[in-house]
Amino acid sequence: MNTLIQLDISGHAGRAIPKLDKPFKLTICVTQTCNMNCQLCYADCGSAKKPELTEKQWKNFIDELVREGFLHVFFEGGEPFQRPDFEEILAYCGRRLYIAIRTHATLIDAEKARRLKGLGVGRLYVDLFSPEPRVQDELTGTSGSYDAAMAGIRHARAAGLKVTLLAILSRWNHQHLQRYMELAQALDCDQVGILRLYPLGRARQRWSEHSIALNEMSEALVALRVPRGIQLMQSWHPRDGNCCWQNAAVAPDGTSIGCPYLRESVDYGSVLEVPFLETWRHPLYQTLRAQEVEDACPDCAATQGTSGGCRATAYAFHGRWSAPDPYCPHTNHGVDLRALPQRLLRPDP
Ligand code: SF4
Ligand code: SF4
User: Fold this and answer.
1) Burial letters for 330-346: b for 16+ Cβ neighbours within 10 Å, e otherwise?
2) DSSP 171-204
3) What was the pLDDT predicted at 302?
4) Ligand 1 midpoint to CA 265 (Å)
5) What residues does ligand 2 touch, defined as CB less than 6 Å away?
6) Which ligand sits nearest to residue 168's alpha carbon?
7) Of 47, 163, 227, 265, which is most buried with the most CB atoms under 10 A?
8) Stretch (H or E) spanning 303
9) Mind listing the pLDDT tens digit for each residue in 222-274?
10) Ligand 2: which residue has its CA nearest to atom 3?
11) What is the whole-number distance in angstroms between the Cα of residue 259 and the centre of ligand 2?
């Protein structure tokens, strides 16, 4: 069981910072392989760039998580279903851990959906860039990907799996968010997550084509009318949380990275070499969890109980871990989100 070990009031503006003895949730980035080639992919997925953990190694890691009292594991990739042994790994979780999966859903047929339900999968988070088939196929670089995703989602719902649709807010969908919500409702999804476009992976390559200004993001979100039965999740003011304090992630090669969006910036050690909780105590990991930030939005602190917004985004734009998150209008300070710093435009920052 996770334990809240301390409330430290030394944080920004004397606010209480929760301290955990281990994270609530851990993301396993189970592979970097993917059958799509999305322009917005923040992990540059396609082929594996480094050797990935084997089925046996992931199973050993799952045993470690269960031993340590973890309750919740979130799988993502790449595309997790691209791994032939993925269902074996899920089965090994064996109802010992709550399971959620991020996927593009195009590899889910009726039989697989029923198997996933039988394996105890709690929820699918399905990436869908646009409610427009043509735009989706263009952004994924894969003809027919929209129709395949629709089929996968319908199979999942028919099998009784809960589905959250995930939209990365970009030039290509900010004027179609209402239709996106209506599509989610028509597909019988109960949640929509609107995610920011992170300046990572392939998303950096044509950043100025994909990105929009902060005011365009705010306008799109403010105009949105959330249909009955849909819960909206988003991470802009006034819900711009800094979730570093409770997050954990392990990359396909076993590197502990804190969060999938930090994969280019941190290395807390390999779970093949040290116990996961030793990586949790890495000095930089502790610093990010402490929320020592230069500036924070008071409204977001009030609604989220955390300070400074997303550390991955702040670091990407400013190159400092303590920098303010430029995706919040109160802490943007004139940063043009359509223009990336030069160091991010190089192939390997
Ligand atoms: S964004 Fe998702 S579906 Fe697209 S290439 Fe990356 S991992 Fe694959
Ligand atoms: S880097 Fe951003 S998304 Fe990731 S855990 Fe930290 S605040 Fe949350």
Assistant:
1) bbbeebebeebeeeeee
2) TTTTT-HHHHHHHHHHTT-SEEEEE---S-GGGG
3) 84
4) 20
5) 242-244, 247, 259, 261-262, 310-312
6) 1
7) 163
8) helix 298-304
9) 999 999 999 999 999 988 889 999 999 999 999 999 999 999 999 999 999 99
10) 310
11) 6
